[in-house]
């Protein structure tokens, strides 16, 4: 019997603590739990709002946007470009950069709805035996992307 009284007392203490943490004025255990549930939902909502603000701040100050990666393949390069913003003419600008580099696009997937994403496989069409390295391709693509992103006007 003593053990049960300790357990009941401990449970009442825990409900009282829950009641105070959640600023509940409820008396019944069920109401305290309901208030605690509402409190947790409000906290989740606040966390989501803070995350949204943080994400939108990163959108405007992210130094890694746009991001370009170039990996060397056996017969060319795998080129990935992602940008949070889709500037008009980005695809044309990139294709011109590939042409200037002497890369033929063998395969590509492009998405340019709200943001810009391109995954392309390019192979070198240089017949002079001169080989290209991934870093040179990356630098040329980054220049093309940044030039386009910095607001150069479209020429049509």
Automatic annotation (TrEMBL):
It comes from the Eukaryota. One of its GO terms (cellular component) is nucleus. GO terms for biological process: regulation of primary metabolic process. Keywords: DNA-binding, Nucleus. It is found in: Nucleus. Its main location: nucleus. InterPro entries: bHLH-TF_ACT-like_plant (IPR054502), TF_AMS/ICE1/BHLH6-like (IPR051358). Residues 67-145 form the Plant bHLH transcription factor ACT-like domain. The keyword S-adenosyl-L-methionine does not apply. This is (rape) hypothetical protein. It comes from Brassica napus. The lineage of its organism: Eukaryota, Viridiplantae, Streptophyta, Embryophyta, Tracheophyta.
